Predict the structure.
Amino acid sequence: MGRRSPGTPTLEEVAALAGVGRGTVSRVINNAAGVRDSTRRAVQRAIAELGYVPNLAARSLAGHRADAVALVMTEPDWRLFGEPFFTEIVHAVGDALTDTPVQLLLTLVRTDAERQRFVEYARGGRVDGVLLMSVHAEDPLPDMLAKAGLPTVMLGRRSGDESVTYVDADNAGGARGAVTHLLNGGRGTIAAITGPLDMYVAQCRLRGYREALEQAGRAVRDSLVVEGDDFTEESGRRAMTELIARHPGIDAVFAASDTLAAGALSALRATGRRVPQDVAVIGFDDFHPARPAEPPLTTVRQPLGEIGRTMVRLLLEEMEDSPVAWRHVILRTELVLRESA
Amino acid sequence: MGRRSPGTPTLEEVAALAGVGRGTVSRVINNAAGVRDSTRRAVQRAIAELGYVPNLAARSLAGHRADAVALVMTEPDWRLFGEPFFTEIVHAVGDALTDTPVQLLLTLVRTDAERQRFVEYARGGRVDGVLLMSVHAEDPLPDMLAKAGLPTVMLGRRSGDESVTYVDADNAGGARGAVTHLLNGGRGTIAAITGPLDMYVAQCRLRGYREALEQAGRAVRDSLVVEGDDFTEESGRRAMTELIARHPGIDAVFAASDTLAAGALSALRATGRRVPQDVAVIGFDDFHPARPAEPPLTTVRQPLGEIGRTMVRLLLEEMEDSPVAWRHVILRTELVLRESA
DNA sequence: ATGAAAGCGCTAACAC
DNA sequence: GTGTTAGCGCTTTCAT
């Protein structure tokens, strides 16, 4: 792999051609102050003439920074990769970094071997910080990174007392709002389709559902709650089918994610039933799979764009030798009402 | 960003603790031969004790390699990011690299600024090679990388005489096979929905359609061909609607991609028509959106897994100081017949 | 404002 | 087999 092309010019050659010292060239390429304008131009001319590109390995070694951050997806079953949820976040993070010299690196960590390799990569100083998505409760990666002293920001948290910096949506509050909205609309029997309850996000959303019912003085009936094995459409379909069998008279359904809701709707479509009359969901910005003649859909929007931007902001702050050990940010969700299609 | 934690041990400290020279430690961490077993163990003990992790910047600088490759998506309109096509390729590439020390880095290049930043990243020696996906005809990135002497492998090609190493599916052959299959099934009036014809892949698939008709002695009627603006469902819908208006008596449709086909089917669904009686498509492995009571779907499968693996193989070969300037590989497609659902 | 010099932590070539 | 040494190309004091 002797990759270094033979003709690659170095900073020293640039200095020689421009007739200045190496320090000066370094200042120019780093836009540092304290260089006479004429000198700067001379150096820039030499750079252009030679087609000089800084050697990033050398810069890292001397400067103790990589000018790169990793966005890690730890999704063993990562069909989720293609979900709008991820796409939105990646987009937002990319946008937030667009005006910086920081290169965004997406990496997939599926197996333990890949986890190991990534940790060595990160600890080896190839990135200045790490953004983590879709971390499961038992994933050791966040702690490995934190222990290594790497600035790390998670999307969501693994439990109620997360020790790593994170940005999360107000999942409990959002769910509460959605269910309260259904109650206000006069619905009496509201079922819930939750995500896998070993994930904290699913627990929070279920808690919100319960709290809304309790606040309204309603009983919480366990048989109205079905847990999905994961956040996929298939789980939503199965859960909805189960609910219909258990309670033919359901008024409304609260689904803990857009994908679950999509599955639930497709199950309803298959049966041709007209109840439930309402479906509410916590989802992303552009979710509207409901078709004409289907129940109206209320969406509690997670502010994915803001989540992504906030993650980047926190990460950059942590990279600035910040004295803060960690910080937690919870962003408000937004109830979006839609006309019945 | 002074990231280097103060307590990070260096190779030299490991050597001191183990009571050996730095060269020996280097040999051990690189699994090089020529180290006595007892020495190796002593070094490994010291490594464990200190929690030593090699500084990759220093390794890159001295060793002229990054042990990383980038997989670049140059998709300005990258909703495509979530498409199964991409997911499959990323998966295959990740698998192919799983047993190597090479870290896979996904990067998005949407704007010129991002393109510039990535080129500097790559030329700066942070990756040993680059895999390119979904490159448009006028994209300068492949040439920039090739000119910089970076091993580069493209998925697909920009034109008939591509100068950069690539792996492609036999698009013309696949399309020919699909249309020939429709002809053999007795279809007389076969329409085509193509991709945007400024992309070579779309041209090839259209050529395959034409060749199949010509081989069968049929006339190629321009009015039976509709060009999609892109490879999205929306384009497929529009094209199908247009075709229905032009030729109510269409027998069958050949769609140049799975997404276009999905759009076409949804347009048919909306009209409730029962013709065309057949739809054939070039697509990925798991495409089957046809519903009961819809035309049977013939899929020409692109071997995405093999494409990804082959790309990695070629890239690794190019990284071995290979004397070959470039190489081109075209993989066979496979006709998949499905029962009418 | 600018040049000179001292590393950054590692690999690889060479000596023993 | 193993220690020694000379860089890799840059940033960053420290002089000037």
